Amino acid sequence: MADLALPKTLLVPAGLAESLSEPSVTIDDVIQSALNSPAHRERWKYTKADGFLTQLAAPAEAPHINGEQQTGVRWWRETISNPMPGLDLQQGPEAFARLCFVGEAMRLDITGSVTDPVTLIHRSNTLPVIVNLSANASLTLIEMIEGDEGQQTVWIDIGPNAEVNHSRNALNSATSSWQYSSVRLQSSARYHLNNHVLGCGVRRQDLHIIMDGQGAEAKLVSAGMVDNKAALDQQITLEHRQPRGRSEQTIHNIVANGGKCTFNGRIHIHDGASGTDAQLSNKNLGMGDNATINTKPELEIYTDDVSCSHGATVGTLSQEALFYLTSRGIDNAAAEALLSQGFLRQCIDGPLAETALNTMIGVREIGASL
Amino acid sequence: MNLLDVSNLHASVETDDGPQPILKGLNLTVKAGEVHAIMGPNGSGKSTLANVLSGRPGYTVGGGGAMLGGNNLLDLEPFERAQIGMFLAFQYPVEIPGVSNMEFLKASIDSLARARGEEQPNTASFMRTVRELAASLDLDPAFLKRGVNEGFSGGEKKRNEIMQLLLLNPKLALLDETDSGLDIDALKVVADGVNRYRSESNGVVLITHYQRLLDYIVPDYVHVLSNGQIIESGDKSLALELEAKGYAWLT
Amino acid sequence: MSKSSVDDLVEAGSEYHAGFVTDVESETLPPGLDESVVRFISARKGEPQWLTDWRLEAFAKWREMREPNWAHVHYPPIDFQAISYYSAPKSQTDGPRSLDEVDPELLRTYEKLGIPLHEQAALAGVVPDPAAIGTPAGTNVAVDVVFDSVSIATTFKETLAAAGVIFCPISEAVHSHPELVQKYLGSVIPQRDNYYAALNSAVFSDGSFVYIPKGVRCPMELSTYFRINERNTGQFERTLIIADEGSHVSYLEGCTAPMRDENQLHAAVVELVAMGDAEIKYSTVQNWYPGDENGKGGIYNFVTKRGLCAGPRAKISWTQVETGSAITWKYPSVVLRGDESVGEFYSVALTNNRQQADTGTKMIHMGKNTKSTIVSKGISAGGSENCYRGLVRISPTAQNARNFTQCDSLLIGDQCGAHTFPYIENKNNSATVEHEASTSKVSDDQLFACQQRGIETEQAVSMIVNGFCKEVFRELPMEFAVEAGKLLEVSLEGAVG
User: Fold this and answer.
1) Does B164 contact chain A (CB < 8 Å)?
2) Among chain A residues, CA nearest to B164
3) What is the pLDDT of residues A1-19, one digit of tens each?
4) Is residue A287 less than 8 Å (CB to CB) from chain C?
């Protein structure tokens, strides 16, 4: 296998360099070895990294925003100059490289309980977005991905006892799309993500969550539909670094008609993160012909006082449920449609639910009103 | 004309060790306006009868016939059987997360209406009907927005089955051990529901293990099923006799 | 478990019961590996030219390959030139291999190894009527013993021969049944399958060969006992089992090694072929020396095991109890090629002190209606690392394939690690694959409940761990189940006081 490489030489802004604990070696070497480490290779096992890497240095513009003119919200563009907590070169070398290449970022500071949602609409390659929540602040963050091609990176740092409700729709029919999100939770912080996604030419979603304070809570719910030879690759790493964190992940994907869907969910519980409760469930429904489903729920556990479980299934519709529906007079095709919709709907929620339902399911009149 | 006509029915269930014959020449006739109770020990074939008549996958009919209102049931898909008026109240109602009860009921009633060439009820009046029915069966109307049977207690699931019975108003109701696992209050609610459904134009087949249910839904006939055949038929007194003596004296 | 009680438990040292050295005069090749070593081994065994060529081919491939680095294990680089690739007890090299000539020193070795009494008798040359020697379970066991590089004795040959069963050292089978060996050697695990399999193909010393003819149910359990004795030697045994149509065999494998300060390499290859309607049950109790409590010494157990369900309704079942070795790298797998074939993997892997295990299985579904079951129980104690790595692959041709995987980890103490890496790759939408994993610890509540009834901590933990492993022990032949339970207890001694 050829070595992975960045499209051009990396110049690290002074502020970013400070965030790294890699002083002795040149950063180029560090990122080169991170890109080619076995763990990172593993994350790109089922999707080719090269295409995404060559785009890393592409020009980017600010995302469209709504709701930024509220009390407690500050939104501006700046040259990257400050250290960023939670930066992890090993986890996201590409995202780090993008920060360096672009050199600028959009900053979103939240200093109180913000009532209206803040909406980001990405219509192309957009500048990295860095979100900071002060202690006790709260935010509803909405992201919509549009356009034919694009890379978006978002860094969210949630202060003590602060809360983010994040909803994201990636329902565009792009040739290539990559979202990288890094979320750091301080003590008693809460993060809730509703992710709705359709496969596209090649779609990649990386999510790195760090439970960096005691008693933090994360909940991730994702519904995906990968049809007609589309592709989706979701990589989630959730690290419990501090005691008494709780995390729950539910990911449902329908893969049909030549679609290719990859899911990797890694839960890493560090030494000392006692009292952790971490659960993950990934269910895949295969329909039609020639679909490919790869899934790998991983556990890496270094402390004994944990309650931790994961499950993954690949399967078809339940025969029992189908019989129940048809025994009430619903014909076979309609019963199958109802069940597959129900499978996705379990993971569709939040402010973007209606759009997601309409796009992913093409929901019928009755479903919307009930 | 007979509503239900089961003649010399043979059926087996598919298992890992190959097909196991369960029904071995069963005969049963139900006329409109009648309630039949079918009793019998575990493994006698009671649930198999319900499953075969409603078309559950996993069973093979080896011979004999089953007609409902002049239609050959055995030729029909499960949904087609429902569309001509067959209803099975499940012993173990299935949980279907993500599909709301209301959505499910609307899909069902629309399908039945379409099949009969009737107009589909409008959403508002349909929802009103369902809410009223739910309330009459002590079901919290909030459950209608939840997934089908999702998180229901055993009793709630059974009452939901009876609510569907009243809503869909089929020609023949097959109740598969609907009384199992119910406390006395829930049993009364279920029995009231079945009695409300009873009319001169429909029929009921109650499959039960215990006589208790028959105190509340009085049957016209009681049959004893053993080893895949009906070996004894009588009126309600037969059920009392079974209660007193057990099944051993017959088998 | 409270911090202090864990410390107490981890404190006490355990002793490796099989850690003795047998004083046997042996012929050992000096360390180093090149073509001449491969030629020497082949010549020493008087092998035919095709096999010499096959070894050389494997050696050429090995030289082009790189050591795998993806496993969750850490160790200093292995110097493959510092290992001796051939060692044989001298008294065995010339004389005929009759049981009478077994070195008395070796017999004492078996005794120390705890080989059942009737087998010792058999090994000592007393071959009784098999009908008369039933163990309490009513079963007989035929044993092949591999001591360093050579197989030194095989029992019950005559009884087996009467049933048409061939059970002999593979070095002997090369001469007595060349057509079978040539046909199947490398047919399931090709020479360049992986780095260690290639190495084994080049230098394999000895191992067992089994052939069960059509429709024969092997009249007794077959068993191989592996022992590494010499310093600085590697053991590279090779096992090949062929179950012809409609036959049935249960095979047991046990392993031990002396306590040595340096690490020793064990890179075995086991190939199983089950034809239509045949069944192979392969059980392993692996108790190689794990190193001391600081991680000094111990066996590197880098083993490739794979079975092929070649025909319809074939069944291959792997059961393993892994308590030994400094590092275990091992994934007994099944290729389900025949329609309706069945693959099973039942595993208990226990690591203590500084042990590292990266073990699991691969189930490759190719045939229609194929079915696989995986039950893995990992127990981590001390400062050890225990990792399950598995692959369930459903090929486009595997219509209605089913897999169920249950993968549980138990942690004892807070200095160890428990990891799960299950790969599911599905290319057929009629398949059903279910994977479940959980991680738990021996809870204070469980311990308290036991203690409150007067059961001491060590015994309580042992009971809880045994209960945790029950689903796997149930799959072992009766005699081995008892042995496995005891072994677990001994291996946990350091961790639980």
Assistant:
1) yes
2) A328
3) 578 888 888 888 887 877 7
4) yes
Total number of domains in chain A: 1
pLDDT in tens, A180-216: 999 999 999 999 999 999 999 999 999 999 999 999 9
- Output Rg (C-alpha) for chain B, integer angstroms: 18
* CA-wise closest residue to C322 among C367, C285, C292, C281: C285
CB contact under 8 A, A301 and C417: yes
Report which of B61, B161, B14, B166 is spatially closest to residue B101, judged by C-alpha positions.
Answer: B161
- Chain A residue with CA closest to C390: the answer is A296
Summarised one tens digit per residue, pLDDT across range B146-164 is 899 998 888 899 999 999 9
Please indicate if any CB of chain A lies within 8 Å of the CB of B171.
Answer: no
Does A325 sit within 8 Å of B168, measured CB to CB? no
Each residue's pLDDT tens digit, A62-119? 999 999 999 999 999 999 888 887 788 888 899 999 988 998 999 999 999 999 999 9
Instruction: Determine, yes or no, domain membership for A175.
Output: yes
Range of the domain at C276: 3-492
pLDDT reading at C68 higher than 80: yes
Q: What is the total count of domains within chain C? A: 1
Is the residue at C497 inside a domain?
no
- CB contact under 8 Å between B77 and A343, yes or no, is no
Q: What is the pLDDT of residue B15?
A: 87
Q: Is residue A281 part of a domain?
A: yes
Q: Are A124 and A81 in contact (CB under 8 A)?
A: no
Q: Residue A255: its chain C contacts at CB < 8 A?
A: 429
Work out the percent of chain C whose per-residue pLDDT is above 90. Answer: 44
Which residue, A2, A10, A183, is CA-closest to A93?
Answer: A10
Question: Domain range spanning residue A164?
Answer: 14-314
Residue C303 lies in a domain: yes
Q: Which of A299, A300, A309, A313 to mutate to test the interface with C (most CBs of C within 10 A)?
A: A299
Q: Determine, yes or no, domain membership for A277.
A: yes
Choosing among A276, A314, A336, which should be mutated to test the C contact, i.e. which has the most C CBs within 10 A? A314
Which residue does chain A place closest to B110, by CA atoms? A330
Measured in angstroms, the CA of C380 and the nearest CA of chain A are apart by: 9
Distance CA C299, CA C326 (A): 5
User: pLDDT tier at C1 (50, 70, 90 boundaries)?
Assistant: very low
Q: Is B173 on the interface with A (CB under 8 A)?
A: no
Q: Is residue A369 part of a domain?
A: no
Type and span of the H or E element at B114 = helix B101-115
Q: Do A302 and C417 touch (CB under 8 A)?
A: yes
Rounded CA separation C50/C351 (Å): 41
Q: Which residue in A has a C-alpha nearest to residue B174's C-alpha? A: A327
Structure-block tokens of residue B145: 């927005």
Between chain A and chain B, the number of residue pairs with CB atoms below 8 A apart is 97
Residue C487 pLDDT grade (very low, low, confident, very high; cuts 50, 70, 90): confident
pLDDT value of position A212: 96
Residue A305 with chain C: CB contacts under 8 Å: 414, 441
What is the DSSP-derived secondary structure letter of residue A8? S
- Between the alpha carbon of residue B225 and those of residues B21, B23, B47, B234, C447, the distances in Å are 15, 10, 11, 12, 51
Looking up tokens 């339902």 gives A357
Query: For C91-144, how does the pLDDT look when each residue is reduced to its tens digit (9 = 90+)?
Result: 444 333 444 445 555 555 555 555 554 455 444 433 333 333 333 233 355 666
**What's the predicted TM-score (pTM) here?**
0.86
Cβ-Cβ contacts under 8 Å, C428 against chain A:
286
* Cα–Cα distance measured from residue A212 to residue A95, given in angstroms and rounded to the nearest whole number: 20
Lowest mean per-residue pLDDT among A123-137, C289-303, C406-420, C446-460? C446-460
**B89 chain-A contacts, CB cut-off 8 A:** none
Among A residues 329-348, those touching chain B with beta carbons less than 8 Å apart: 329-332, 334-335, 338-339, 341-346
C437 and A306 in contact by Cβ < 8 A?
A: no
Region C162-173: mean pLDDT is 90
Q: What is the DSSP letter of C188?
A: S
In the block, which residue shows the tokens 């099989």?
A: C18
Q: Which amino acid is at B97?
A: P
Structural domains for chain B: 2-245 (3.40.50.300)
